[in-house]
Design goal:
Blueprint (H helix, E strand, L loop, with lengths): L1 H14 L12 E5 L7 E6 L10 H8 L3 E4 L8 H8 L14 H15 L11 H7 L12 H11 L3 E4 L3 H10 L2 H13 L3 H15 L3 H6 L7 H4 L2 H22 L2 E6 L9 H7 L3 E4 L3
Parallel strand pairs: 2-5, 3-4, 3-5
Antiparallel strand pairs: 1-2, 1-6
Helix pairs in contact: 1-5, 3-7, 4-8, 5-8
């Protein structure tokens, strides 16, 4: 369960980004230069999908590296406890403090229809996490995850799994984004029974299959999602910048396979260009 919730968190965080100069169509990138003895690899994932089969080039990159680094250290035994501690709103806030009675009833109906449980059971949870709980309903298939497949591959090779940030750091983003804006997005999802969300996810999956990381960015400034369109620095840019030195440290320590949401790759503040600015050679693996 802890992995599933963490995947939902990462899914939300990686779906959205900012526009930037176009890069090659690839979700797999090679990192070398800047003093690295051996190359590392950067792979853009999609956290919730119908088919998380790893392509041959990804498997080859995994074979050429000796540790796996994801956004989170997802095999950390303390993650579940930390997740539970960070999922609730501060200052005793509840969902009823954030929305009208009418909107609360709409959200409750959404939860009853899709979860079979009243939202009252979770009304002190950060609104984002309430939205994330509904993500499996956006798929018309059993949920799969690239992170799970990458972890299985690393564990089969006896490799360590580490993280670029902590679950506390990820969840803090949703204290910095006003709860009212998160709740507004949840209300919008409730009022159209997630029709807009389903349309957006369907388009995102198609673009991901094309490995067009720049086109992914073009669809991300969605004005219908307030907590994304108005807080992109918190969701992506700041986190990307914090990751660069950590990526460098891991890569200098040993050849590393990095798996992060594909929304983090492109753009002026995307991981690819930030790594290049830091002196690394980052090239698309397109074969």
């Amino acid at each position: 369960m802890k992995r599933i919730i963490s995947l939902f968190v990462m899914a939300f965080l990686s779906i959205f980004s900012i526009k930037g100069q176009e890069l090659e169509n690839s979700t797999l990138w090679k990192i070398d230069g800047n003093g690295l003895e051996k190359p590392s690899y950067l792979f853009g994932t999609i956290h919730i999908t119908c088919d998380a089969t790893l392509e041959d080039d990804v498997k080859k990159a995994l074979d050429e590296t000796t540790q796996l680094v994801l956004e989170l250290d997802m095999d950390d035994p303390s993650m579940q406890t930390k997740m539970m501690q960070g999922m609730y709103m501060k200052d005793g806030k509840t969902l009823k403090d954030l929305v009208s009675e009418e909107d609360y009833k709409a959200i409750d109906s959404l939860f009853m229809d899709n979860m079979g449980m009243p939202v009252k059971l979770f009304e002190n949870v950060k609104p984002f996490l309430l939205t994330a709980m509904l993500y499996p309903q956006l798929l018309d298939c059993p949920m799969q995850s690239f992170e799970t497949e990458l972890m299985n591959a690393a564990q089969a090779q006896g490799e360590e799994i580490k993280g670029l940030e902590t679950i506390e750091e990820q969840l803090k983003v949703f204290d910095d984004i006003p709860y009212t804006d998160q709740a507004a997005d949840l209300v919008r999802s409730a009022k159209d029974n997630m029709a807009h969300d389903k349309k957006m996810f369907s388009k995102m999956y198609k673009v991901y299959d094309e490995e067009n990381i720049t086109k992914m960015l073009d669809m991300m400034n969605d004005e219908n999602t307030i907590s994304v369109s108005q807080y992109q620095d918190l969701l992506l840019a700041n986190r990307n910048k914090n990751w660069i030195s950590k990526i460098g440290d891991y890569a200098k320590e040993q050849p590393t396979f990095f798996g992060v949401g594909a929304g983090h790759l492109a753009g002026e503040n995307g991981v690819i260009k930030l790594l290049r600015k830091a002196g690394y050679t980052v090239t698309a693996v397109t074969e």
